[in-house]
Amino acid sequence: MVRFLNWRKGQQSSRDPVQRPDTGKQQETRPQDAAEPPSPTFAVGDRVVITEHVQVFPARSEGEVTARNANRGEATYTVQFGHHPPVEGVDDRNLKRMAAHTPGIFEIGTRVRLTQPFDGVLVDEDLAAERNDPQIGDHRVHRDAGTVGTVILRRDGRDEHMVQPDRSSVVLFVPSSKLERLEGCIRVIDDGQGGVRFRQYFAYLDAVALREPVRTEEGRFLPEGAVGAIRPMAIRTTIVQEMQESWRTDAYTVYFRHEDGEISWLRLAANMLQLQSDLAGSGSRGF
Q1: Which residues pair with 134 in a beta bridge?
Q2: SS3 labels along the chain
Q3: Which class would CATH give 26-97?
Q4: Fold exhibited by the domain 202-278
Q5: Is beta strand 95-97 parallel, antiparallel or unpaired with respect to 47-50?
Q6: Where in the chain is the domain with CATH 2.30.30.50?
Q7: What is the CATH number of domain 111-200?
Q8: Integer Cα distance of 276 and 273 in angstroms
Q9: What is the mean pLDDT of the chain?
Q10: Nearest one of 158, 186, 163 to 115, comparing CA atoms
């Protein structure tokens, strides 16, 4: 079921007069008569993840609490998702504090980037680690700083994460000191056979780059790395409905502006796209 959470309930001040049925007189409420505001579940500055989609943001989108609103015994929050405008009225039941906010801890599905080069060896057929053990072998594996991937396993009690670089079959054992968190939302899907697979979600107006070149129906050429924006054309539906359809089908409408000012709209699979913020040294911005 879709829940739209960008709303505010009316508030009644504890100073408003109320009717006492036993006397028929209007009296001021006493402190014990007023609804006690809930103890804050989240604090301003907390990093959180939503458990259901909110407006154009899919479930598992990460954000930061920027304000707390006590409202007739309930708590709602204003949450900032990346570079997008803050969303007000997010129910605390739809929020989960990110354990991954603890320095050096990244949960399964977290998008990360190498801050330093990885120089290791194959310790298994498709698994590499930075080891200095001659018995392991000498099949070297190198990845440059700036390599982007997804955490697929966190080893309890060890300062290492298993990271699957984008479009690579070799998984890396990487110490947390060499990783930085990226923006983006990954859904972790249990395949029912003891494994997991990952699906990346994009939000409305996310700046995205092409992973490979594309030619439009008009014959215009867009090179690898060309930047556009997730921007569905909602003609007979709403933007929220269009984004929900994209999350369901794993395909997105992307807006590109060419150097001559002409515009192209393309429907592209998610695996053709990556967030512009994934690219080292770039900032994420809307169009």
Answers
A1: none
A2: CCCCCCCCCCCCCCCCCEECCCCCCEECCCCCCCCCCCCCCCCCCCEEEECCCECCECCCCEEEEEEEEEECCEEEEEEECCCCCCEEEEEHHHEEECHHHCCCCCCCCCEEEECCCEEEEEEECCEEECCCCCCCCCCEEEECCCCEEEEEEECCCCCEEEEEECCCCCEEEEEHHHEEECCCEEEEEECCCCCEEEEEECCCCCEEEECCCEECCCCCEECCCCEEEECCCCCCCCHHHHHHHHHHHCEEEEEEECCCCCEEEEEEEHHHEEEHHHCCCCCCCCC
A3: mainly beta
A4: SH3 type barrels. (2.30.30)
A5: antiparallel
A6: 26-97
A7: 2.30.30
A8: 9
A9: 77
A10: 163
Q: Is residue 161 exposed (0-12), middle (13-18) or buried (19+ Cβ within 10 Å)?
A: buried
Structure-token match 């050096």, residue found: 104
Type of residue found at 215: R
- In this prediction, residue 211 carries a pLDDT of 93
Per-residue confidence band for 228, with pLDDT thresholds at 50, 70 and 90:
very high
Query: In angstroms, what is the C-alpha Rg of the chain?
Result: 24
Contacts of 90 (CB under 8 A, 6+ apart): 5, 50, 54, 76, 77, 78, 79
Residue type, 75: A
Amino acid at the residue 39: S
Question: 123-135 pLDDT, tens per residue?
Answer: 888 899 887 666 6
In total, the chain counts a number of residues equal to: 287
